Amino acid sequence: MPYHPVLVVGGGLAGLRAALEARFQGVEAAVLSLVHPLRSHSGAAQGGVNAPLGNSEEGKDDTPERHAYETVVGSDFLADQDAVEAMTREATERIFELEHWGAPFSRTPQGKIAQRPFGGGAFPRTCYAADRTGHYLLHTLYQQALKYRVQVYIEWTALSLVVAQGQVQGVVALHLPSGEIETFSAGAVVMATGGAGRLYRKSTNALINTGHGLALAYTAGAPLKDMEFIQFHPTSLYGSNILISEAARGERGYLLNNQGERFMQRYAPRFMELAPRDIVARSVITELKEGRGFDGAYVLLDLRHLGAERILERLPGIRELAISFAGVDPIEEPIPVEPAQHYTMGGIDCNTWGESRLPGLLACGECACVSVHGANRLGGNSLLETVVFGQRAGRRAAELARAGASTSSEEPLKKALEEARTMIEGFKRSNGNEDPASIREEMRRAMWEGVGIFREKEGLEGAVARLQELGERARRLRPAHGGQFFNQDLLRCWELPGQLLVAEAIAGGALRREESRGSHFRLDFPQRDDARFLHHTLAHLTPEGPRFEPRDVAITRWPPEVRKY
Amino acid sequence: MTLNVFRFDPEAGRPPRYDRFPVEAMPGMSLLEALTEIAERQDPSLAFRYSCRGAVCGSCAMSVQGRPRLACQTQLKDLRGEVLVAPLPHLPVIKDLVVEMGPFYQRFEEIMPYLIRRTPPPERELLQAPRERRLLDEVADCVWCGACYASCPTVRQGPSYLGPAALLQAYRFAADSRDEGGREGLRLVDREEGVWRCHTVFNCVEVCPKKINPARAIQALKRKALLGRFKLW
């Protein structure tokens, strides 16, 4: 069985950065990736990555402290301030490093990295590469992974984490092309599997963002944190829900209702379209509910006043997407947009070095909750999180792997392999009749309708009950396709029960939190309630379902204040 | 609408065949959504790659009516009647629409696809003028989908040719004002299996879903290679 001192699960930005860092620390690291790393969802990030470089005249007074403060306000004071300060302190170094590795950032006239304003920030702080920043950064890190010969197991998906004597020993994984199952023994396992957007009916996420990685950690005994905080992006392409970057508003695009009115003036008169995403998303839904949308379903994002030259230079990618997927050229017509699930603020509970509460298991990127985003993530902070905390998790994983002279026996790994084989045979020979596609669809609907942008007690209770019922039905799945090669049906069956558990952690957390904070908006409790809820939510998996537990927020410098834009 | 989808399962010991799947083309539906619908409702054994569904990850390249395209970027409304859906040519089939991409990825590794620097990095970013950065527009957008590789007649003739995608990648670094790889990088493509095998058929330009022009990049590399030789004399 292959052994790697550091084994990273997930080949997106966070995972690649973690693996590279382990290499830099002199420890061998391998990446296990469900898709070729360049297919990771990181590549879909458009707008940019935040760092207080101060490269423009308007931004020259920017500092890590300003960046941290605005991140904390954006998070509605739920972010851990020590974690935020670590992130903003290290931002500049991580960005320059990416640039030195060849990331093709857009440039100022002086040749410096160009920066644009983003929601919730008082300075132009978002470093960008046209509107394909994620694509360029992902390619840059993959190039470095090739250069430093990081071994990547492509199209291997982790089926389970192996825990013995309270310590993670490795993973059992399936090679999709060959159908081969193998155990990977590891000194430390770093989860970097991204978010869980596909638990929702409408999501900007890639189809591979099923939440499977979160489920693996959760079922192995690592608690999830703050799962009720789900970001809804205000501007996804109407119908397909493909992301239309916040950069479009950063470049001063307008949001218009069916009266031709810039409706944000009613909700955030100071920041207008550049208020944080939670506020803009709720404003859009309010417009739609009050009959000021188009066909009751979408509003318009108007870029025409920017002119063809600026659109072609700064937003070529979203122009291409609008043309390909909506038949609309933003130079000539406004883009129809609607809110959709976009980001999972919560995740595997971990500290600022990526360590989860399960020894030997670390996490970084969207699947982790450090927490730097709190109740609402600012645009441009997720790419930053991947490289800052990817680097940190890689470093700590290397230290742990070096310290723990792997004396663990192979027995638990062999046993886990046998269990996985038995489960796969069980799926193939099942005598159930439930169709995984319909259960998944019902789950996505329950989440969208009950645990969406606006929430209230009854809807949340309904969603929890529905998810439990679907969990029961998922025990009786019809037999999976029995084929050996590239059997995606088997994978979909394997993932489904875990997805339902993660969904229940989200819905249960949202039901418990009787207040409105950041992305979590309760119609029945529309105010933030610091007295009762200025704390994180930890979800532990028990045989009876999730057990929730509060955890204090780390407040170092900024006591909670009213969040106003 | 009917999709005629290439089917092959190495386990079955049967020759490949085409299966006909009726599809109800909803407004705005992509070919990828139609395939997903088939896998969920009609035949769960159907295999195809997917990820972003927004034409940025390059997973779902396949041959549609004989032309390499991204399934997610292909709208059903632009297709008529009986639609032929097959795996990308020039690469071995693993199952159905899934091909072994290894030989294609291998080509990239041959050209050292990363920025080469010899001087130590400065404290801040390396400066790059906007006009220098503009040279990377388009050429850095490649998503490694393989559509150009699959459309190239020279690739068809033999597997040794680097192919348009890897050569475009080589040009991406040759064109970067920050790259100090210089002649070393160029040597990797200035050979028979490199730029000189391109016969400027321009299929790659035709099929690129990101509207990139690999042929132009290859011509630019040829010029650089020639100039490099003159300098040696």
Structure report:
The complex is a heterodimer of chains A (565) and B (233). Chain A has 565 residues and is of the alpha/beta class. Chain A is 36% helix and 18% strand. Chain A contains 15 helices and 19 strands. Chain A has helices at residues 13-24, 64-74, 81-100, 133-147, 212-220, 247-250, 277-289, 308-314, 316-326, 381-403, 411-428, 436-450, 457-473, 488-512, 530-533, and strands spanning 3-9, 29-33, 49-50, 115-116, 126-127, 151-154, 156-164, 167-175, 181-191, 224-225, 230-237, 254-256, 299-302, 335-344, 347-349, 361-363, 368-369, 535-542, 545-552. Chain A starts with a strand and ends in a 13-residue tail after the last strand. With 233 residues, chain B is α+β, with helices and mostly antiparallel strands. Helices cover 33% and strands 13% of the residues of chain B. Chain B is built from 9 helices and 7 strands; from the N terminus they run E-E-H-E-E-E-E-E-H-H-H-H-H-H-H-H. In chain B, strands 2-1-5-3-4 form a 5-stranded mixed beta sheet. A two-stranded antiparallel sheet of chain B has the order 6-7. Chain B is elongated, with a radius of gyration of 20 Å. The mean pLDDT of chain B is 94. At the A-B interface, helix 3, helix 4 and helix 9 of A face helix 1, helix 2 and helix 3 of B.
